[in-house]
């Protein structure tokens, strides 16, 4: 004899079904958003590493009376590098705005806050960029500019990863201790990034080719502190990889994400030590900045993989009792 399912297990009305993952084109757009956020970090690094930070000596204009570089400017090729980075900001903003429109059209209103956060962050970055120019590339402001970019890369990554999953409440996919270790690793990565920017601010790449502005710190001592933090972070990442491998209930995507994070960490460490022992060539420093973006993306993917969407009532099978 069959018994009908109870109210809590009955399929939800079609109109209340949770929004599905975004479509393929929207997903690609959200991924592009991550890419351009990383790209502007790298181009901003090139501006600094080539001494082009004051290639456009005013803001928002490049020079008084012109928003674009002029032939009469004395900054040489630096003006084109700095102007190119400013122009890229417009592209980044357009992609972010397209993401906001796309998630709304997809019915994924849960993603609107992340899309809006990226747009708001871009506007904040434009203001910080202007302050940086008016303060003649003070290392503290330059440092803030980079760290806010890392936050934007994180928000864009959350937007992309969450868009690939259905909306709704989430549940733990791994043990609390493992989730805690992942968040501890994320906090340590934040410390690595902060000290890394201090290392750059104390070193030769200030952004101004003529009058470098630096922190009055010993670059070697700060570099050693940075390396110590990296070693601690690497140890935590290795522990995460092992823990996710031995836990049978760990989601496969969390295991894959942790391995990607470990590979990115080891590669970044190799580049870091190489640039240190070769006298900080600007090309390697730029690669190191790109690696920082990859690390942030990989870390966020691990964190988002620690939980999974709760199965919706409409997706559960109705229990039948004989």
Indicate how many domains the architecture comprises: 1
SSE topology string: HHHHEHHHHE
Structural class: mainly alpha
> Largest sheet, if any?
2 strands, antiparallel
Description:
It is a single chain. The chain has 322 residues and is mostly helical. Helices cover 64% and strands 2% of the residues. The chain has helices at residues 24-49, 78-105, 112-134, 139-163, 176-202, 219-246, 252-277, 282-305, and strands at 170-172, 307-309. The chain has a two-stranded antiparallel ribbon. Helix 2 (78-105) runs antiparallel to helix 3 (112-134) and helix 4 (139-163) crosses helix 8 (282-305). It starts with 23 loop residues before the first helix and ends in a 13-residue tail after the last strand.
Give keywords.
disordered N terminus, single chain, flat, 322 residues, two-stranded antiparallel sheet, COX15/CtaA_fam, 64% helix, mainly alpha, oxidoreductase
């Amino acid at each position: 004899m069959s018994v009908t399912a109870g109210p809590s297990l009955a399929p939800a009305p079609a109109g209340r079904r949770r929004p599905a993952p975004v479509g393929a084109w929207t997903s690609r757009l959200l991924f592009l958003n991550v890419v351009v956020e990383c790209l502007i970090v790298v181009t901003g690094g090139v501006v600094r590493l080539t001494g082009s930070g004051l290639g456009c000596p005013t803001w928002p204009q490049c020079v008084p009376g012109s928003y674009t570089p002029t032939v009469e400017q004395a900054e040489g090729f630096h003006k084109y590098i700095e102007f190119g980075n400013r122009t890229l900001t417009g592209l980044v903003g357009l992609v972010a705005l397209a993401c906001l429109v796309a998630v709304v059209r997809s019915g994924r209103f849960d993603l609107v806050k992340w899309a809006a956060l990226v747009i708001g962050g871009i506007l904040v970055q434009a203001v910080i960029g202007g302050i940086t120019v008016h303060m003649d590339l003070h290392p503290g402001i330059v440092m803030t500019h980079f760290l806010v970019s890392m936050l934007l890369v994180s928000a864009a990554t959350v937007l992309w990863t969450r868009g690939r999953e259905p909306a709704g409440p989430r549940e733990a996919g791994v043990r609390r201790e493992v989730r805690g270790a992942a968040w501890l690793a994320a906090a340590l990565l934040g410390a690595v990034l902060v000290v890394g920017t201090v290392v750059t601010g104390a070193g030769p790449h200030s952004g101004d080719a003529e009058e470098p502005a630096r922190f009055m710190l010993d670059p070697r001592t700060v570099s050693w502190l940075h390396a110590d933090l990296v070693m601690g972070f690497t140890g935590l990442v290795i522990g995460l990889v092992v823990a996710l491998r031995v836990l049978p209930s760990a989601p496969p995507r969390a295991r894959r994400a942790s391995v990607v994070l470990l590979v990115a960490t080891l590669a970044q460490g190799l580049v870091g030590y190489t640039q240190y022992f070769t006298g900080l060539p600007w090309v390697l420093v730029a690669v190191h900045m790109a690696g920082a973006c990859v690390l942030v993306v990989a870390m966020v993917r691990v964190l988002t993989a620690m939980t999974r969407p709760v199965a919706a009532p409409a997706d559960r099978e109705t229990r039948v009792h004989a």
